[in-house]
Amino acid sequence: MRREHFDIAVIGGGPAGLAAATVASEKGAKVALIEREPSLGGILKQCVHDGFGVIRYDQKLTGPEYAQKEIDKLNKNETTKFLLTFVTKITKRSSDFVIQFVNRSGADEIEAKKIILATGCRERTSKQIGVHGTNPAGVLTAGTAQNYVNLQGLMPTRKCVILGSGDIGLIMARRLTLEGAQVVGVYEAKSAPGGLTRNVVQCLKDFNIPLYLSHTVTKVFGVDRLNAVEISKVDDKMNPIAGSEQIVECDSLILSVGLIPENEIAKQLCVPLCPYTKGAVVDQTLMTLTDNVFSCGNALHVSDLADYVSESGEIAGAMACAKIKNRNLVNVTKNKNLLYVVPQKINLDAPLDETVFYFRVAEEYENAKLTIYADEKVVFSKKYVHLRPPEMERLKLNLEAYSDCHGFSFVLEVGV
Amino acid sequence: MSNIKKIQHKLKKIYPKIKVDEKDECVHLTGELDRWEDIVSLGQAAVSKDFVGVLNDVKLKNFVEPDIRQSAINDKKYDGSNLDVLIIGGGVVGCAALRELTRYDLKVALAEKESDVACAASGRNDGAVHVGIDLHGKSKKLSYLMRANPLYENLSKELDFKFERTGQYIAFSSWKYLVVGYLLLKSRAKRNGIKGMKFISGKKLKQHSPNINPKTKFAFFYPSGGSVCPYGMTIAFADNAVFNGGQVWLNTCVTGMTVENGKIISVQTNRGEVFPKVVINAAGVYADKIAEMANDRFYTIHPRRGTNSILDKSSVEHYGKLSISMYGNHKSNAKLHTKGGGVVSTVDGNLLIGPDAVETPLREEMATTAKSVNTVVDRQQDILPKLSARDIITYFTGVRASTYEEDFVIQMGRKTKNFVHAAGIQSPGLSAAPVIAQDVSDLTVKYLEQFSPVVKNSNFNPVRKGVTELRNLTLAQRDELIKKNPDYGEIVCRCEEISKGEIIDALNLPLKVDTVDAIKRRTRAGMGRCQGGFCQPRVLKIIAETVNKDYSDINKKGDGKIILGKTKGEE
After folding, report:
1. pTM of the model
2. Range of the domain at A352
């Protein structure tokens, strides 16, 4: 079989994949963009609320509007798009990769020198957080509810409880209320909301939807269709407190309890994953520890803004085209006040002038000071008045002066 | 002292308020107790070789048994049907019996109260094809299992369900069990007719599975152990039966019977009154209730819950494919004569852990509890030391239909002549089901032949084809199929790689079902790590389009609607 050969294959046509494919094709690479759904845009297609593009376009766009801008950019250059196409296997060879896929035309293969994984993320399920009881209709993730309401025009609920205060849960609380459903409350096991502050205000407070912190759902009732849930208070270790149970009648339990980067293809390619982000370990070019495999967007780490997802796609797309001869990797370490820092490695032989870091804090802090060291030398420091885990921070630094160091470390001091 | 006096005397000491008498050659217990565990202990203590069975009618204080769960459907669809045979219960035994009976030229129907077959214990177990090392030498369980176990290679090919002869290990964490363990298990293997038992050193076991508990000293291996997809096997029996002319009446619940002169005249259901010549009782946890309706009760079902958890596929990479139980660790209270759950390598490439055993007065209490899941995790850490609740992708609870005699009841009615019992079916009931079904069918045919000859169904075709799994094919094979039917190239369930074509195939199998859960069990769409988060809207759409129904009329299962209406803009 004669296979078509590409410089770069981008897996996933959401905001990260679109940006990666756009930049790579602008730089003259022959790019294949593979998307499993019939149209490009990824999860943005179902995000009809606004707030996208504030950084990237200085505008408040809806998800579909933002996606369209990205698709228009992509279409200015030539890329080979495979839509409704599902990658079944990627095999690494000595100097390139063979990508197997299926679509309505058949099962086929292409070759590519480099792979950019832009496979997005998936939602945690009720079973993964240990919701017990029966297994009725009416237990669904916020993303699935969003798909039904915004793409299919179907109502999966008339009266629901939302567990978890992640952004999609907050957005769906408002959306379902606007569609005439009753949202009994949003329950969050942690002692602080999981979503962006703006979403807590605009989606809950403005609609008088109660938010109960330190509460979780411990059981669901109903055999065929859900008819009630049991809610319990939780202690500071998030364990349910016996005796605090209350029964809330509703027809649905909607879950917004976290997103997990989707890395099944990465695992096939033996890409090491980071225990904190659940995405690939990468250097500043967003190349994973498997040479010539890049990772970006929510597959790399879950972002709260699509703008940052696009940015990481652009980095991966540009760097996949750059000529980088060697990998001289040093570690980027962090102290325990930080949940994660991406990238986790720096390639001292790759461009260092525009190194972008993304990080999240482990807990909510006020008056914290971040210091970045190259070995013992201070590279950068900044004071933050307020840092919250749901809100990702971004820094762009020029590290050219440190190209002979042995490693970088991020130290966040709190209460300073 | 008469036999019943002996039992009265024995029980009076422990439960003075309980009335013990003899009824239809059974020990009949009546009264009231405060605790369910006492009622179960009482029933167990009343078992005697001198009686046919235990009728435990002792009430639990302040407990009202819930009504049998049934569909809201109430029509006359099957009213007035004249049948040769009515099978009650669409579990593995009922479905296998239906298939056996379609080998004859008979009018046979199976009434199942749920919206699919294998909704209770048959679909909610560990799928182990048992070895039989733990079974009593004179039990029906053993004799049926030993007949059934060798059939699986052929049967799984004939009916296209998943089966793997994995073998089974019994491991020990202390050398002190070496001699006694070996002698006991060896003699039992000989008595039970189990072939091929092998000693495996801890070192060799660790070569096979490097990450199992390093304290494992030695194990015995039984090559006859296996693993089957339990609901897949049940569905396969049902499909083949329907293909050969059997009827499966879903959402059909038996509500009563008319019995005259030791004979069932008619059976009432929520879908009409039917008139069978013979009734087969394969009603699982409700078997004693059905027997009571037929005026032929001589056993009592005491439901026993069991919870299993499925681990992420990565656990197979970590521990290897392994079906194993561990004995002799301080953490487990297992004695040598109980099997007590373990790790099962499933046919779908996961590891399964479980089950536990919890007595309950609720026959259909399939809700899971954190306690059961945690108990099983804790217990199986004996084998998989790094096991944590985070490895679990899903969990489920089934209810075993145990009798106090803890053995199968497979026989003609004692008082009611046109009634066949297939009751008390619990582990190894799934493994034994193909042979139980043969015997039930033979009993039924023998009864019918008293009145008129029963002829073979000359059109019977034993071969059934399930849904082709494209993910297991080569690229070229897949390409060929997609070229013929492009729907095979459109992936709907991304976690399990299931195409639109496979979903449509499942909807076109002989047993027609159109719930999301039914499709999930036939294709695995929605069974992966996202548990249907991405694919459910698309599966729903494909079902609605294929069976030509409105979205809001497609249920997850039973009467459970997924969609409750339209958005404002769509109304």
Report:
1. 0.95
2. 327-416
Q: How far apart are CA A357 and CA A343, in angstroms?
A: 6
Alpha-carbon torsion (B389, B393, B394, B395), positive or negative: negative
Residue B563: which of A133, A156, A179 has the nearest Cβ? A156
Strands B26-30 and B19-23: antiparallel
Question: How many independent structural domains does chain A possess?
Answer: 3
Return the ∠ at Cα A157 (arms to A155 and A161), rounded to 5°.
145
Interchain contact, B555 vs A133, CB within 8 Å = no
CA dihedral sign of residues B128, B131, B134, B137:
positive
3-state SS of B125-158? CCCEECCCCCCCCCCHHHHHHHHHHHHHHHHHHH
CATH topology of domain B168-223+304-395: D-Amino Acid Oxidase; Chain A, domain 2 (3.30.9)
Domain B3-60 annotated CATH 1.10.3680: no
Question: pLDDT tens across B473-531, in order?
Answer: 999 999 999 999 999 999 999 999 999 999 999 999 999 999 999 999 999 999 988 88
Report residue B186: phi and psi, to 5°: -65, -45
Of B396, B552, B559, the CB nearest to A224: B559
Q: Is A228 on the interface with B (CB under 8 A)?
A: no
User: In terms of domains, do A94 and A5 share one?
Assistant: yes
Reply yes or no: is the peptide bond before residue B214 cis, omega within 30 of 0: no
ipTM surpasses 0.90? yes
Scan for tokens 């045919």, then name that residue.
Answer: B445
- Residue B337 known to be catalytic: no
- A182 φ/ψ angles, rounded to the nearest 5 degrees: -100, 125
A9, A320 Cβ separation under 8 angstroms: no
The CATH code for residues B470-563 is 1.10.10
**Which fold is adopted by the domain B69-162+227-300+404-466?**
FAD/NAD(P)-binding domain (3.50.50)
